[in-house]
Amino acid sequence: MTSMTRSSRGRRTEARRAALQALYQWQIANQNIDTIAIAFPDQWQFPPLDGDYLRELVREIPRCIEQLDARLTPVIDRPTSQINPIERAILWIGVYELTFRPDVPPRVAVNEAIELAKAFGATQSHKYINGVLDKVATDLKGKIGKEAQATHPS
Fold this sequence. Notes:
single chain, mainly alpha, 68% helix, transcription antitermination
């Protein structure tokens, strides 16, 4: 496995930021995610980003919401439907990466989510995001068998 360059890491960070905005739009506008995925990059000016990663996040996260929510439910203090849409989208991105992207180290997935929360979330939401994703990461690490080797849902 080759290590990612600083530039490609930055492109993934920007892809996560754009995915957060698209997932927020999906939740609020209740539009078809495929419509958003096609139109979204053309609607906004983004810094250089990893377009393939953006498309993966925007298309795959909605397809595996039940799995992501199932990972969140044991470690959160309320139903996911009661979490602010921004924080919920950040958690989905983090849990998706922890669960389905073994190429993303858990610490990176958690730290990227914290940075998204600091930039877009409520004042102290980054602490909540950190606590929840740390618990999910610990839980996944403890389930080394079939569960931890989850295959992609699509």
